């Protein structure tokens, strides 16, 4: 059940109308106005659900939902009396349905009295600047930008139109594209780990680069992206970065990449387009990862990865070899126990 106190009232629409808008094939008789969205197990007759994981096949076969979004292969598993809304990828279909049903995010065009905006800053039209925000000298903010409470945007930064900067974010030495989303607690543009140990102490190397973030990039809560040392740190268009990710100085990340929670990428590493790094992957510095490469969770990447290669393990190797290594280790330990 979606709590309307947090997410507002769903749009009043019938299943047949939703099917037309989203491109679903409707299978089954009847029609009804959708009153809610819920899981297969908890949905009621006036609610919509979806089947996106084979682990929940039993829930699909017994669901009380009025309509379910399913792939073609699972239409026969939908119970009698439940409408099947057929779409090739049920989770994508679910996302499309929510975009129709959920009210659009709205905001006031307003700068709160407690915000501290430097007189040289340029603020676009229809922006909302929340309480206790600090916006420094010569900052440029495009139209329709929302900046949440207690956020700090330091001198000379630029934020593209349509972007959403949530609460308690700090941004410095950065240029951010259009329609970016930066979630609470993120730190963008801090100095990188430019420390060199010597026999008599530590030498700090000044970090003189920037962070360049493309359009439609999403950055999760408490993620940190360091500015470059001399070159810029770059995040390409449409890349998604999860919570608690560390991206070091001079890292270049291509377009449409997916970086999952707790990944750490060391300095001067380069990722191509469409790269996926699963949770807790660690990447050494000065490594190149080719277009479309995938690293399994907890992989330790210490050398270059070819385009479209799938790797896993510590150190990361080709996924087929990694699986054989894991199987061999398991068999070796089992045999030793049996002896």
Short synopsis of the structure:
The protein is of the alpha/beta class and 339 residues long. The protein folds into two domains: 4-101, Udp-n-acetylmuramoylalanyl-d-glutamate--2,6- Diaminopimelate Ligase, Chain: A, domain 1 (3-Layer(aba) Sandwich), CATH 3.40.1390; 169-320, Hexapeptide repeat proteins (UDP N-Acetylglucosamine Acyltransferase, domain 1, 3 Solenoid). The chain has a twelve-stranded mixed β-sheet, covered by helices on one side. It has a ten-stranded parallel β-sheet with strand order 7-10-13-16-19-24-27-30-33-36, with no helix packed on it.
CATH hierarchy, class of the largest domain: Mainly Beta
Based on helices, strands and strand pairing, what is the structural class? alpha/beta
Q: Please tally the helical runs, counting DSSP H or I stretches of 4 or more residues.
A: 5
Name of the CATH superfamily of the largest domain: Hexapeptide repeat proteins
Largest sheet strand order:
6-9-12-15-18-23-26-29-32-35-37-38
Compute the number of structural domains: 2
The percentage of residues in β strands lies in: 25-35%
Rg is 24 Å
CATH topology of the largest domain: UDP N-Acetylglucosamine Acyltransferase, domain 1
The helix content is 10-25%
> What is the tally of beta strands?
38
Q: Any low-confidence stretches, pLDDT <50, length ≥5?
A: none
Judging by the overall fold, what is the CATH architecture of the largest domain?
3 Solenoid
Largest sheet: 12 strands, mixed
Q: Which overall shape is indicated by the principal axes computed on the Cα atoms? A: flat
> What is the distance, rounded to the nearest whole angstrom, between the alpha carbons of the first and last residues?
54 Å
Q: Average the pLDDT over all residues and give the rounded result.
A: 95
């Amino acid at each position: 059940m979606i709590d309307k106190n947090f997410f507002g009232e769903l749009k009043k629409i019938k299943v047949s109308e939703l099917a037309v808008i989203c491109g679903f094939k409707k299978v089954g008789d009847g029609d009804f106005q959708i009153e809610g969205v819920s899981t297969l197990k908890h949905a009621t007759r006036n609610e919509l659900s979806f089947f996106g994981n084979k682990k929940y096949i039993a829930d699909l076969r017994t669901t009380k939902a009025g309509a379910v979004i399913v792939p073609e292969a699972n239409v026969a598993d939908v119970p009698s009396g439940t409408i099947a809304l057929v779409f090739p990828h049920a989770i994508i279909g679910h996302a499309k349905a929510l975009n129709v049903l959920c009210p659009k995010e709205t905001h006031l065009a307003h700068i709160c009295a407690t915000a501290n905006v430097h007189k040289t800053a340029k603020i676009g039209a229809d922006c909302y600047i929340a309480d206790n925000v600090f916006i420094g000298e010569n900052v440029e903010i495009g139209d329709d930008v929302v900046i949440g409470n207690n956020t700090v945007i330091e001198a000379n930064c630029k934020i593209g139109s349509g972007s959403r900067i949530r609460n308690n974010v700090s941004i410095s030495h950065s240029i951010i594209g259009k329609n970016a989303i930066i979630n609470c607690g993120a730190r963008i543009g801090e100095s990188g780990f430019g420390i060199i140990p010597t026999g008599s102490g530590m030498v700090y190397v000044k970090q003189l680069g920037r962070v360049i973030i493309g359009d439609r990039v999403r950055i999760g809560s408490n993620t940190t992206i360091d500015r470059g040392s001399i070159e810029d740190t770059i995040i390409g268009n449409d890349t998604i970065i999860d919570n608690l990710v560390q991206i070091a100085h001079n890292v270049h990340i291509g377009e449409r990449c997916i970086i999952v929670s707790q990944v750490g990428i060391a300095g001067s590493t380069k990722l191509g387009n469409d790269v996926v790094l699963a949770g807790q992957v660690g990447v050494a510095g000065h490594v190149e990862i080719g277009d479309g490469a995938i690293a399994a969770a907890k992989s330790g990447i210490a050398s270059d990865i070819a385009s479209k290669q799938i790797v896993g393990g510590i150190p990361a190797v080709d996924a087929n070899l990694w699986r054989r290594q894991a199987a061999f280790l398991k068999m070796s330990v089992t045999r030793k126990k049996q002896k």
